[in-house]
Amino acid sequence: MTVSFIIPFHNEGKNCQPMVERVAAFAEKNDIDYEIIPVDDRSNDKTRQILKNLCAKNRRIKPVIRKEDSVEKGNTMGSALMEGTVKSIGRFIIWTMGDMADNTATYKDILDKLNGNYDMVFGSRYMPGGSRGNLDPLKATLSSTGTFLARILFGIPVHDITNAFRGFKKEVFQKVSLEETGFGISPEFAIKAHMAGFKLGEVPTTYANRVEGISNFKLYKMTRGYLLLYFKLLLKYRLHKKKLVLH
Ligand SMILES: Nc1nc2c(ncn2[C@@H]2O[C@H](COP(=O)(O)OP(=O)(O)OP(=O)(O)O)[C@@H](O)[C@H]2O)c(=O)[nH]1
Ligand SMILES: [Mg+2]
After folding, report:
1. Residue 245: inside a domain, yes or no?
2. For the Glycosyltransferase 2-like domain, which residue ranges apply (predicted)?
């Protein structure tokens, strides 16, 4: 059974090679049949060339270099994750970030839970045993508040859905229809999967702030985007008379 790792990249010239290599090393060490799908948007550093060189060395690395260079047209992180997932062949998919923020050891715990009866498993910084590491306190507050709201509004049973880092069964992606092209895809996918009846689980992880490269995080845009998203989803599920379970 193949595991597909989808990794979004935007100007990660210093991170992309070590990131892809460490995912490949993890999969090979654990004897996992894998593919790695790096998805690049709008990079104007060496990211694209490095990814092309990597795929020439290892046929399991299958970069998607997206041509449209406009943010307005939706060539952003969320749509990159979607495109990579659509192109994947794995039954299990892992979304992991190209800035090396996610702990490689967590992949194994995610896969173990997917092999159990969970459909979507989050690397969680805010559950017991998890840690936000050196993440900026303001960002940590924003992201944990995002999940807190989703727990109250939608009965989400896990503690960290604003981070894209997660694994899931391909059928979850096929059943749920996603619209967010930016960072909002992380909570959107979690909430829609939960409301569709899929089983959400979590494993503790430790986050690591990027050492190289420039952040794409925009505080105001993101806060506004999340609030709008929650409002839209509330309307959607209320209108469809879905039962909201409070945890
Ligand atoms: N394909 C693609 N990847 C993106 C885009 N924007 C960001 N990324 C990648 O998505 C991942 C997460 O973006 P980050 O810039 O790390 O955002 P963040 O984690 O909120 O912020 P920092 O970690 O503080 O930089 C990184 O691997 C980025 O390179 C985009 O428009 N397209
Ligand atoms: Mg990051």
Report:
1. no
2. 4-176
Q: How many domains does the chain have?
A: 1
Residue 99 Cα, ligand 2 centroid: separation in angstroms? 6
Q: What CATH code is carried by the domain that includes residue 106? A: 3.90.550.10
Q: What is the structure's pLDDT at 219?
A: 86
CA atoms of 131 and 128, how far apart (whole Å): 8
**Relative to the alpha carbon of 15, which ligand is closest?**
1
For ligand 1, pick from 72, 216, 219, 220 the residue to mutate: most ligand atoms within 8 Å of CB: 216
Distance, in Å, from the CA atom of 93 to the CA atom of 85, rounded to the nearest integer, reads 7
- Domain range for 234: 2-239
Has residue 18 been placed in a domain? yes
pLDDT recorded at residue 247: 46
Where do the DSSP E strands lie in the chain?
2-9, 33-40, 64-65, 92-95, 120-124, 166-169, 200-204
Report mean pLDDT in 10-residue bins for the chain, 247 residues. Answer: 97 98 98 98 95 97 88 84 98 98 98 97 97 93 94 96 98 97 96 98 97 89 93 85 51
Establish if 247 belongs to a structural domain.
Answer: no
Report the predicted TM-score, pTM, of the whole model to 2 decimal places.
0.95
Does some domain include residue 244? no
